[in-house]
Amino acid sequence: MNIPLGDYLKLLRGYLRNERGRVALLALLIILGIFFEIANPQLVRLFIDEAQADADYARLVGLAATFVGLAMVRQIMAVGAAVLGESVGWTATNALRGDLAAHVLGLDMAFHNSTSPGALNERIDGDVTNLATFFTQMVIKVIGNGLLMIGVLIAVARVDARVGLAIGAFALITIAVLVRVRTWGIPYQVANRARSAEFAGFIGERLSGTEDIRALGAVNHTMWQLDTLLRAWYPHNWRSGMVWLVTFFVTVLMFAVGITVALWVGSSLWQAGLISIGTVYLIFSYTEMLRRPVNEIRQQVEDLQRASASITRVRDLFALKPAINDDQARPPGPSVPSAPTVAFCNVTFAYEDDAPVLHDVSFELPGGATLGLLGRTGSGKTTVARLLTRLYEPKLGDILLAGDSMRHLPLTVLRQRVGLVTQDVQLFNASVRENVTLFDDRISDDAIMGGLSGLELGEWLTRLPDGLETRLKSGGAGISAGEAQLLAFARMFLRAPGLVILDEASSRLDPATERLLDVATARLLQNRTGIIIAHRLATVQRCDYILILDHGRVLEFGRRLDLALNPASNFYSLLRADLHEVLA
Ligand code: ATP
Ligand code: MG
């Protein structure tokens, strides 16, 4: 077992820094609890011995009352320790979850493309959950259990050194045996967890695809796959259950042997007249008392193994640094034009190293003008939009906004100035208001209504059952593609970026929604630089410039009017060809 101790200490120090007081209190409660636990059998022993010696009744009642009082104080302290432990643990791990989530949101798209949502969930939540007990309880409990064992052994050794040695040896052997049993069982449980993760992944994916699965008649096949998965899972589940049972039986067996030995030694010493009956009880009781620390230490060895893997993974995740960062950023100048010029200078780009998607793309769009971007599917139109929001970075060449390289703009400023409406708009399970403002509640209702009616969406809004408070379902269920686009427009309108990029939905919209979208587009582009990735020629009719991409290369760039009048241009042939065939 390889425990990254340095990383562990760093995490502990970092996330418990503000919790020092509560951690100290927790340690105090746990250690006091141990002290009481060891003191308890001593009282009972005293009681038994005095009762046997026919002690005064009042004294016996006094002893019993002390016992009950101590037991109650101990319970209260145990509850306090549990509450504190949970609260410190959650505070620390939630801070870690937050940091990890923020870190991951800042990572490059390349990372997100190669990491599935399920895997990310596991890394941000699963790993951290593994660390939860580790954070608070680990140190305190390991020390506490160690102290409890030592305390018990000293208490027994004071009665009789030989019995102390015997019980000490018994505790060590039991821990060693249990750890061995666990080590034997771990591969079975890892295999079982892997199957369970696979199953969860399968269910998640199929549930989100319910519509397609039913529409395409794939229900039987899906059920068959489910059956296969369950069948493969069963033996692993069975074996992992057996591991648990074996561990349980070994523990019971070891303690049965231990207590038999304790009682046997105790009774022979008593028969020899060396100890009192109260002391026999004491020996029995202390042996029994070892059950908890022995079990917990075994548990902690297991936790430690799990946590060490998690700590390594958390550290690796934090070590990932985004390649797209603010290293070259300068403080933004005060006089940035509200509608910047956009220039691509010999931009070459590839998602994966060996397959360039854009080749040597150059064009310049004056501030305030609108560019219609055309090209077959897969020609790289969306990629141009992603480069402009700096979700990716050109491999060669540069992109200039208002005459300055995009790298010089801090990312937060860039993303305020460039707005992108994507092909499939992401809607959240929240109200229309929250979807439009993206949860920014500083934006007033008036501003939202102004924005919506500015886009001619006021009428659409009145048709919604609860107006701005209408709840949208996640993933945009219950809302048409056109309406989703309209909402995305409203988002843009409120953010008021200087450059607006619209990646038109490639699905066909009904004529009424299309008209609404056209009006909204015109409003949105007023006094702004705009790039419209068009799937319909009707959309580009209002553009000042046209750029046609073909396999990632610029096939044609120019003023729309010039191109439309030039019979030699591709745009000219496009206008005359069957548009559906050319563009769809
Ligand atoms: P459409 O009209 O269908 O929207 P598009 O012109 O927008 O097409 P892009 O999405 O820019 O095309 O894709 C250009 C090329 O890059 C395609 O060959 C596509 O397979 C590839 N591509 C797009 N996104 C990625 C990605 N995240 N990782 C790897 N390759 C990608
Ligand atoms: Mg696209």
Can you lay out the helices and strands and say which pair or pack?
Layout: H1 5-16, H2 20-52, H3 57-105, H4 109-114, H5 117-159, H6 161-208, H7 210-215, H8 219-271, H9 277-289, H10 291-319, E1 342-350, E2 356-365, E3 370-375, H11 381-388, E4 396-401, E5 404-405, H12 411-417, E6 418-421, H13 432-437, H14 445-454, H15 458-462, H16 481-495, E7 499-503, H17 511-525, E8 529-533, H18 537-540, E9 545-550, E10 553-559, H19 560-565, H20 570-576, H21 579-583
Helix pairs in contact: 2-3, 2-5, 2-9, 3-5, 5-6, 5-9, 5-10, 6-8, 6-10, 8-9, 16-17
This protein binds adenosine-5'-triphosphate and magnesium ion.
The gist of it:
With 584 residues, the chain is of the alpha/beta class.
What does the model show?
There is one protein chain. The protein has two domains: 315 residues, ABC transporter transmembrane region fold (Up-down Bundle), CATH 1.20.1560.10; 242 residues, Rossmann fold. Helix content is 65%, strand content 10%. It is built from 21 helices and ten strands. The strands form two sheets. A six-stranded mixed sheet has the order 6-7-8-3-9-10, sandwiched between helices. It has a four-stranded antiparallel sheet with strand order 2-1-4-5, covered by helices on one side. α3 runs antiparallel to α5 and α8 runs antiparallel to α9. The radius of gyration is 35 Å and the shape is elongated. The two termini are 58 Å apart. The mean pLDDT is 86.
